[in-house]
Structures are given as C-alpha cells and as structure tokens.
Batch of 4 targets.
Target 1
Amino acid sequence: MTTMERSARPASDPATDAAALLLRLGVVVLTILLPCAAVVSRRPLFVLTPIGLILMILGSRLAPLRRPRTLPKLGRACASPLGVTIILFVVWAGMSLAWTPFPQAAADRFLKTAGTVLLAMAAFGSLPNHVRASNSNLLPIGAAATALALVVIALVAPAIVHADEADTNTVHRATIGLVILVWPALGALAIRERMAAAGIVAVAVAVATVAVWLPSALAALIVSILTFSFAFSKPGRTGWVLGLGAAFLILAGPALPLVATAVVGDRIDPNGPLAFLPAWAAAVKSDGLRLLTGHGFDTAVRAYESGRLGANAPRGLLFELWYELGLPGAAVSAALAYFVFTAAGRASSVIAPFLLAALAAIVALAASGQAISQLWWLTLVCVEAASFSIVIRAQHTVGRVRAKVVGAPSAG
C-alpha cells in the first residue's frame, strides 16, 4: 500500500484500535501460542483456549463501528437444522446422566464440555462479518512453527515421542492437533493466493507427521488430502457424499462387528489389529436394551479405566457413541454429520475444500480411537472451528478492491 493510500484511510479512534488489538491477541493465543505450547505440555490447551476465545469476544464486542448483533445471529444459528441437531444432542447427553454408572464424574465432564462449547459459540457469534486479513496470516505461522518443533523433538529426543500410548503422549496429541489445524492455515493462504507458501506449510506438516510416526495421524492426513483433491473441483457433491457416508457408518455401527465376526470370525488373530471385533460383537449382543438408551454420557472412558471394558474393547467414534448414548444419540449424531458435511460443501469455492478436508481428518481420527469423548478432543475441535471462522470472515476483506488515488485531470 502506498503512502497516499495510507493517508487516504480514515484515522481510527482509540476504542477501535484497542478492539482490534484484543482480537489480534486472541488469534495469536489460539493459532500460535496454543499449538506450539501443546508440543511440550498438555495443560496449555485447557488454559489458553478460554483465554483466546474471551479475548476474541472482547475484541469483537468493543469495536464501536463493527459490533455485530450476537443474539440474533445465535438465534438464527440455533433455529437452523444444524443448530437444532446440536441442541438435541446436548439435551440427550444431559438426560443420559440419569442412568450413567459414574454420575458425579460424568456430570463434571458434561458441565466442562457444555461450558467449552458455549464459550466457543459466543466467540463465533461475536466475530464481525469482516475480519482483517492480517489476522488469518497468523494461522500458517502457527502451523509451520508447530511442525518445526515436532521435527526437532523427533530428531533430538525420540524416546519422548514414543514414550506412551497415543491417548496420553503429549507429542502425539500435538501431532493430532497439527493434522487438524493445518487446514484452516492452508485456507488462510489460499484466500490470499499464496499457493507456494501453502505448499511449503503442507510439506512441513507432512514431514512432522512422518517424523513423529503416529499411524492414526498419518492416516488422517492422507484421508484429508484425498478429500481435498476430490472437493477441489466438486465441493458440493463431495460434501453430500461424505455426509451420507458418515451418517450411514454411524447408524450401522453395531451391525459392523456382527457382520465382520460372522464372515471372518474364525480367522481373526486374538493379538492382531482386528482383535477388537469379537469384543465389540459380544458387547452388542449383551447390551440388550442398552442399545436403545446407552450406558450414559462419559461412560466409555470410565469403563476403560475401571476395567468394565476389557483390554480388547474397541475405541473410537462408532463404539463409544453407541455405548454411551445408544440409538437416539447415534441418530442425532448421524444427522449432525450429514448437516456439517453438506454445509461445508456449500461454503465458498475457495474455503469449501479445506473445510471438507479438515472434517475428514476429524472423522478419521475419531474413528481410529483417539479418545474422542475426552475434553481435550472437544477443545481441539472448538479451536479448529474458531480458526475457520477467522478465515471465512477474512475472505471478504481479501476480495475487496482497494481504492486508487486518481490525480486531477490535466487541462487540455
């Protein structure tokens, strides 16, 4: 921007500058500090996420000329099919606290989960319709810095990388977060047509994932890349197909182990990667009416820890969803998956492929058993949603045509 263009801009007042600074700080916390700090500790995810969301809310609400009407926007969002589905899911999860075998722990987890979701929704609803594009530039910086940190740790301290299981290893959690958060970062570069930089960030994330060598994260990255390649030309159709596929898999969850064990049950190695199928089929047969009601919110994690579920019990979205919330929870989740994927496919042609790729990565990781019922996973998804909200609102400012300073016509 030239000096004349800068001077042509109206001077901003201190309140506007302060609001912009708070919003920028919130974005920095969520997109740079959080993913980088998550490489060395699990605690920053729970500490920095509310701080970043609150800063975003304050920055959005304090802007005198750009203050959005939050309540009407939230009302319209709640009345949409996607909003109604989310509300039904939360209501059913809350009702299931009445029959969970771990009521106190489940109630505590439910309140924390509901608080995180409500805070995230308030942040999304508070954001102005147009966000400065410079805010979205922070996303690829955070993704590249996190990838570099993971590569360094994998090379310098490989024992730390492979110390624990994926559910507890800090480096593994950071890698999972990077595989998800890279897609809004790439979307931020795409809206500014910086494809070379996007390629560099994508390669850095792929190298970091291979260096850590977490198979579930690597598989999710591959799935998301394939999804992006299909969605690049036909995002609407890709979103519709993925939505139907995800809904079908959720609804058919209990039938999958029964069919698998009936077909190849005798050839399943008790110590192999498919050893969970017989245990899953046995759980489906013994649940009875529990298939209709579920065992209650947050039961799966407690059942793993207490030994109620054996060592070969399956982990992941399909089993834990049915085990905890039964048929109503599965039906609402299937509808939620369909609405989310189709809504992502209807986004702008620039953002839609990145949205669909991120959703595919989330579903792939959830299906692989990455402790989706734990609070850290939901918090990570909220950070992902906040990142995409910033990118989507920054897209409008990128596309604006700058005013040109035209000199006075010469006398002729």
Target 2
Amino acid sequence: MSHEPSHSTAHMAPPPAQAEEGIRWSGVIGTGVASILIFAVATFVVYRYQDQREKFLQPVGPLPIPAQMGQAEIGIVDQVPFDITRAAQAYRKDEIERLSSWGWIDRKQGTVHMPIDRAMDLVVQEQKK
C-alpha cells in the first residue's frame, strides 16, 4: 500500500464537488407517488374494461352455482375407464363376432364379408400360386 489509512475518529467534510452530489429526496418521493398513481389508474381502467367485457359476454349475468359444488367427486372423477365398462365389452364382442362370421356388406352389389381366418387362408393360397 502506498499510504496507511487514517484511524482518526474525527469527521472530515467531503470535498466541495462531492458535497453537491446528494440524493434529491423530493424527486425520489415524487417518482414513487407518480408510479403509484399510474398503477392505480391503470388498475381502474383494466377493471372497467373487464367489467364491460363480462357484461358483453354474459348479458343475463353469471350462471347459477351448480348443485354439484361442494361434493367430494364431480364429473369424470367418479367414472370408470372406458375399457372396464360393459359398452367396451359389447363393442369387442360385436367386432369378434363380425370377424368370425359370414355376412352381407352390400346385398345389391353382392358384396359379403367372410371370417378373418378364411380370408387369411385364401391370401396365403394366392401367394403360393
């Protein structure tokens, strides 16, 4: 170090150029107050816009509170998955029955469907030829 710090407890006044540099508290407080006022005005404008938009979208007012409110389980939470229901079993049974039987697709044109096993056998036979 080029110089030793002073251990003096006496306070020295700052140099004149530095003494003029001070915080202008009136400017800081004025900026804070102006910011709060701008925020308040913007909040009011947005509130009014939202209120008018709500009245435009719901002219008769909000919908009534559903009777299900407050219950432990509502809507799809209490429903069983599709693959467990009887509808899935019936659908699967119908599809298996269709794949394993003969039937008409279009009677006028004479188009029929055949069991899938028979159709696969015919395809294999055609490929061998």
Target 3
Amino acid sequence: MSRARTLGLFQGYGVECEYMVVDRESLDIRPVVDELFRSIAGDYVSDIECGQVAWSNELVLHVVEMKTNGPAPELAGVAARFDRNVGELNRRLAPMGCRLMPTAAHPWMNPSREMRLWPHEYSPVYEAFNRVFDCRGHGWANLQSCHLNLPFSNDEEFGRLHAAIRLLLPILPALAASSPMLDGHPTGWMDTRLREYRNNCRRIPSIAGAIVPEAVFTRRAYREKVFQPMYRDIASCDPDGVLQDEFLNARGAIARFQRHAIEIRVLDIQECPRADLAILQLIARVLRELVLQRWVGLDRQKSFETKRLAGILEATMKDAESAVIVDPEYLQAFQCEMPVCTAGELWQHLFQLVRITAGNENHDDWAAPMKVILREGSLARRIARALKGDYSRERQKEVYSRLCDCLAEGRMFVA
C-alpha cells in the first residue's frame, strides 16, 4: 500500500483481490496471465495501472490480482470500481477462451501437474520460494484471497491496531470461508485454503507461526520476536538472502513497516467484489471500535494468548459460522454476554453493534450483501448446499459456472 505520506489509523485502505483464470468451457485453470498482460502492455510486465485500480501478477500464471492503486480514502465505492475492472479483464480474456473464477481454491485443480510459476519480473523471488518450499501444492499454487491493508503512523498506533487485529482475526473465516473443496471432493473444512496455507512453510515453522500473530506491539519487539527468528531459520536455505524481507512473513496478519501498514491475509476471496467489500467494511468498523477501546481496554486486548486465539481460529477454519465459541472472556471483549455462541451469532451481534454506532451513516452499499452472508451463511456453506452432496465433475462445473457468472455480473451467490 504505497502512499505519498504516512497515514494514520483508518485514514486509508488498501484492498487486494485475487482471481483464477480458467477455461471458459471446461473451467480448468489456464496459466495465461503473462500473455494477458503482454496483449495489453506490449511486454511481459508485472503491473498494469487502470486509474484507481491496478492489476498485478501473482506467484503462479493462472492468478491475477486486482488492487487499489494506492490507498483508497474510504472503502465505499471500491466494490463498484473492482466490478468494472472484472468486466474489463473478462472482456480481454474472452478472445483467449478464458474467464475469471472466484472462490479461494479451485475445486479440482491438480497443482503438482498444473502449477506454472510466473517466469518474468520478480521471478527470482518466486523461484527461491519454489526451491525452498516446493510450490507444487495447494498451499502455494491453489489459493486466492482478499487482503486488507490498514495504515498506522507510529509505534503507538501500530500497537493499538495490532492488538485489535489479533483479537478479531480468529473469527474472520466465519464470514469469509469459501473453499470447501479440493481435488474434486469436500475436505470437511469450510476454509480449506487457510488450512493449506498454514502448512505451506512447515519446513520452517517460524515463518507462519500459529497464523495468529504473536503478542508483540512495538516495531522493536516485532523485529526480535518475528523477523529475526524467521530470517535466521531460513538463512541456510536461502544463502543469497533473496527471501530475507518482510514479505517472507506468512502469519494471518503481517506488519509491513516499510509501508506503515498491517496486512490482513486470512480472508478467502468471495463470489464478487460486493461481498468482499461488505466483509471488509464490517471488519474495519469492528476494528475501529476496538482501537477506540469502546468495548474493552487495550491492556485486556493485548492479554489474550496466541494459543488461545489460535484455538478459536482452528474452529472457524473448519466450521466457519457454525463454529462454537466457548470462551466467555473472548465473547465479552465484543460486548457479547452469552457464555457460549456460534461464530455466526457473534457476527450477527457485531453487525448490529456497529450499525448502531454508525447512526445515520449510509451503509446500504455493504449492509445488504452482509445480510445475505449472515442469513445464508459463508460462501463455503452456500457452495456445499448448492452441490447437494453430488460431487461429480458435472455438478461441480454447474455450481462453479454459476459462481463465475456471479463474479461477471457483480451479484451474490445464493444456493
């Protein structure tokens, strides 16, 4: 999230959404993003700017990233801009016999056979990751996410923001899970992408940690507890130091001190930008309340142990909104007085809380799609419902074709 000046808390928002490029008929992945970019720019470039939105490559050739071209002053309006760019990308992909597909994991991709690394600019970094970790797995080659970058201007703001994000992160899959399928079969996990993601650096565990970040709240402590251990642990595998940078960090929320931002990375991509931005707007509003200490003090936010939060995350990764939270202190941090509730019930509660706080603020652009998610369940749940227990390739193609249509038309998916 580049910027001309250092922004303070909630003064800007960086949004990144990743989509698969698939064959228009078969829906098999198509590794053609470099040729797509060359057809537009005349060369194999890594970024294309389209006004307030930019397109970028990712690790693999079948994924394209759409992002705000610098921080947006507010989240309202981002979904409409992304919708227009989805339309433009689909228009340019059509002559190649391709289209964009949403959701966080391709349901039948075989990454060991089909993965193709981006071979152009920035390829030394991708090649280094592949050399160290072998990217021919779902945790590298078959995952699409939505990232939210939130700025901070100094150490004090970083500490407050990091504390709030750590506290909220465990229940984010309850809203955003969209990956119930891998290898043509249901996995039993609503957020299979995140399950695979947390294991993709298992050779060097310090890189991902527990996905929930450690309880560190200053730049110095972060450097000592997060950066230094992972740089030290990877040194023997990366003698040229290609990977010794902030981007190596694979936690579910990472400090990007070079950008003065924290990047939230645990969100599965949804069926259309309206859904992604509705989730981001709700998250941003809840985080603002936590940062302002309206519900619980900063010291209490900081006190939650990583292992405790990681246990809640494990539950929401598996069962999304149906995960049962049995930690009364955690629930109380969000002014929820129930001793036990599902993650979906907690989000219903938070949705009502932030709408009350917003008062007369116009929130139609995010409230309507959020009501669909809260009423119908996570996208993973809706996909599972639409499949109706039929996991034949024909049925999967039918459901995922509908999801492609939802992305192209900017509408919600309801089973």
Target 4
Amino acid sequence: MHVGPLKVKLQLLCGNGFAMGPGKADLLEAIERERSISAAGRALGMSYRRTWLLVDEMNRCFQEKLVETLSGGGRERGARVTACGHRVLAAYRALEAQSAMMAESDAYADLIAVLLETPLPGKAAPASD
C-alpha cells in the first residue's frame, strides 16, 4: 500500500516463512473470485507451481486451512476459501486499513517536514591510506 511517499507492507511471520502478506491476500481474493487455484494464479500472472506453493504455505501456517480444494464425482470442483480464510483475509485487510492511518499521524508529518523529494548526489568515498 502506498500513502504519499510512505510505503507500508504488512507481513505476518510464521517461523521462517510468511503466513500472510499483500500478495497472499490478493491470492485469496483471486481464489474466491475464480473458484480455482490455478485460475487465480493465471489471473495474477503467477506460475502454477508458485501459486500452489503459496497456498500450501498459508495452509500450513494457520490452525485451519485457508483454502481447500474441491474434487471428486460431485458437481463442485476447483477450490474455495474456507471460513478461516475469510476471517484471516478480513483481519489482514483491516490491519492494512489501520496502518494507512499512519500517514495522518504527527510522527509522519514530522518525517515529511524534513524529507527531501530526491536524495542529494552521493559523495566519492575517501581514498584509503
């Protein structure tokens, strides 16, 4: 999310991995819309393998799966976002909205007051002895 020159990227860690972040939130929304993991990946310009790896990582980081696949002889095929997935997505998007309010804070105003539009030219490193 961009707010003026402030860029906020929320990532929820799980061990050494990322349980949730902006890309995974977008993927959950695409799965909900497309009703398919592979179609969601295509819609987001992701490879089939990358899409499945992200879904697998999300599913392994929460107490319940966020995405479940539907297969078998019945009429439903594809994938769906579970109730837990909807809960996680809603909470993540709420945190994003709350973090956007940082741009309205006094601390942010103090930083912007002394921030240059572009960096000054770099100086050459001093010669070593």
